Amino acid sequence: MGPGVAWYLTVAGFLFATGALGVLLRRNPLIVLLSLEIMLNGANLALIGFARNLGDGSGQIFALAVMAVAASEVVVGLGLVVAINRKRITLDVDRLNTLRG
Amino acid sequence: MLVATVGNVVVWAVWVVAAFACLGSGIAVVSFSNPFYSALALIGNLGSLAVLYLLLSAEFVAAAQVLVYAGAVMVMFLFVIAYIGPRSDSPWMGGPSWQAVGAVLAAGALLVEIVVVIGLKASGHLANSEKITSAFGSPAQIGRLFLTDHLLAFEITSIVLLVAAVGGVILGAHARRAAGEVPPL
Questions:
Q1: CB-based contact, B151 to chain A, within 8 Å
Q2: Residue of A nearest to B156 (CA)
Q3: Between residues 17 and 46 of chain B, which touch chain A (CB distance below 8 Å)?
Q4: Is B105 among the domain residues?
Q5: Do B56 and A80 count as a contact with CB atoms less than 8 A apart?
Q6: For A31, which of A3, A26, B20, B161 could close a Cys bridge (C-beta 3.0–4.6 Å)?
Q7: How crowded is the C-beta side of A76, counted as CA atoms within 13 Å?
Q8: Interface-testing mutation among A28, A47, A95, A97, with chain B (most B C-beta atoms within 10 A)
Q9: Are residues B81 and B157 in the same domain?
Q10: Shortest CB distance from A2 goes to which of B8, B104, B174?
Q11: Is residue B39 in a domain?
Q12: Which of B89, B112, B139 is the last residue before a domain boundary?
């Protein structure tokens, strides 16, 4: 037997925490998006680990749906980054506060 | 017996290499100051995750991970980074220092929460995995599940992708009009 599912879940938890750290710490919106991908992949790893543990393929279906949502999120996020850049606004998530009420 | 032991060692060795590559490249994504290097590190992260998926006998998801994520999504990222140009900021500088402290605290709290929740809710049945057949995770099984049990999720996914594509086109056109490159509608 190889490593148990608990080991995979440990890696998934650390990945999720690393991504959360990047989202909260970085101010470049591109790196925030990249860190978001790490969080999504941590969740995906946990889903596939549980799918293997329970012998149920539905977890893999869920992981594929997460992948599609991540691709959509990247399209919209990068579209926003390009639109902000074209308006010559500084790419800094701390300064993008014009929507603040 | 000997063959089984050797196979065991090989699986563990692959797991250790992939897991540490995964965590190391994840930390690299967060800590590089240049977004181009961060994107390259994320490609490494996605590749090592695909190896972990293979160890969990999720062959189709591993292939989709490499094709969709490490292929299409990351190419889009690299194009945008190249378009915007190098613009580096180091992770620990700029912004008030309480932000960095708060970010580290919040990420640590999330990690503790994940460990506690999984330990409380799932520790009972993590040790013994269910027996699976060799068809588990194969494209045939995934396709059958997608078109029978999870048909609604499949269709909703297509709508989500369509909305994202239309949104990307609208955002791009709006940005070009705002910059005066094409006349307004």
A1: no
A2: A65
A3: 19, 22-23, 26-27, 29-30, 32, 35, 38-39, 42, 45-46
A4: no
A5: no
A6: A26
A7: 12
A8: A28
A9: no
A10: B8
A11: yes
A12: B89
Instruction: Report how many domains make up chain B.
Output: 2
The 3-state secondary structure of A58-101, one letter per residue: HHHHHHHHHHHHHHHHHHHHHHHHHHHHHCCCCCCCCCCCCCCC
Contact A2 B11 (CB under 8 A): yes
Are the Cβ atoms of A52 and B56 closer than 8 angstroms? yes
The shortest C-alpha distance from B52 to chain A (Å) reads 8
CATH number of the domain that residue B32 is part of: 1.20.120.1200
**Spatial separation of the C-alpha atoms in residues B137 and B127, rounded to whole Å:** 21
Tally of residues, chain A: 101
Provide, rounded to the nearest whole percent, the portion of chain A with pLDDT above 70: 92
- Residue B55 placed within a domain: yes
pLDDT for residue B134? 80
What residue numbers bound the domain in which B31 lies? Answer: 1-89
Q: Is B159 in CB contact (< 8 Å) with chain A?
A: no
- Asked which of B49, B72, B89 is the last residue of a domain, the reply is B89
B114 lies in a domain?
no
Residue B175 has pLDDT above 80, yes or no: no
Average pLDDT over residues B91-119: 82
CA distances to A60, B118, B126, B128, B161 from B121, rounded to whole Å, are 20, 5, 10, 15, 34
Structural contact between residues A74 and A37, judged by C-beta atoms closer than 8 angstroms: yes
The answer to whether A83 contacts B57, with C-beta atoms less than 8 Å apart, is no
pLDDT beyond 90 at A97: no
pTM of the model: 0.89
Average the pLDDT over each of A17-21, A43-47, A81-85, B102-106 and give the range with the smallest value: A81-85
Alpha carbons B10 and B5: distance in angstroms, whole number? 9
- What residues of chain B lie within 8 A of the CB of A91, using their CB? 84, 87
